[in-house]
Amino acid sequence: MVDFFKNLPKGKLQNLVIMLVVGVLLLIAAGYFAMSGADEPPRPPPIIQNHAAEYAQRDLAAELSGILSKIAGAGEVSVMIHKTTSAEMIFAQNTTVAESRTTEADGQNGTREIDTYNRQASHVALRQSDGSEAPLIIMEAAPRIEGVVIVAQGGGDAAIREALTRAAQTVLGIRPHQVQVFEGNQN
């Protein structure tokens, strides 16, 4: 095999080496572009939902109803809270980043630089007492409140409507246009 290379003219040997280098570079580039989708963080593993956010919403509406009904003249009060999103969980991740730069010289006194970047992320899992694993939650973002409907027996009076609106704004941290107060049935 070595004799084969010795018998080749110098120009053909250079062309063969250049083609070999280009082939290797194409393989490296193909691997780099295949990894470009790896920049997206992996989806979290499924977890068991206990519907705590749904219960918290019901408790919040019940608690708000209770406090609003104590406003003078409000009477019996019912509250409905509308949220556009559910609670969002942020999971802990182990992230590994590898970067490298390679400088290659070609046969014609030229150089080229090849940059490679690789990012891998995986979720941190905690082993439960029963041997199962669950993702480590580092933060749970509360759902965003979009609107509140208050039905009160005294909701027909402008002063009571204003007091109910201000109280709901204060408790929920929302704007006046997100609160609607209506007069309820007189029992």
Model description:
- With 187 residues, the chain is an alpha+beta fold.
- The protein folds into 2 domains: 88 residues, no CATH class; 86 residues, ANL, C-terminal domain (GMP Synthetase, Chain A, domain 3, 2-Layer Sandwich).
- It contains 4 helices and 9 strands, in the order H-H-H-E-E-E-E-E-E-E-E-H-E.
- Strands 1-8-9 form a 3-stranded mixed beta sheet, covered by helices on one side. Strands 2-7 form a two-stranded antiparallel ribbon.
- Strand 8, helix 4 and strand 9 form a beta-alpha-beta unit.
What's the shape? rod-shaped
Note the run of SSEs as H and E: HHHEEEEEEEEHE
Query: How many beta-strand runs?
Result: 9
Domain module tally: 2
The average pLDDT is 79
Number of helices: 4
Query: pLDDT under 50 segments (min length 5)?
Result: 36-51
- Rg, alpha carbons: 33 Å
- Helix % is 25-40%
Which sheet architecture does the biggest sheet show?
Answer: 3 strands, mixed
Q: What class, by secondary structure content?
A: alpha+beta
Please state how the strands of the largest beta sheet are arranged side by side: 1-8-9
Separation of termini? 103 Å
Q: Could you tell me the strand content as a percent range? A: 25-35%
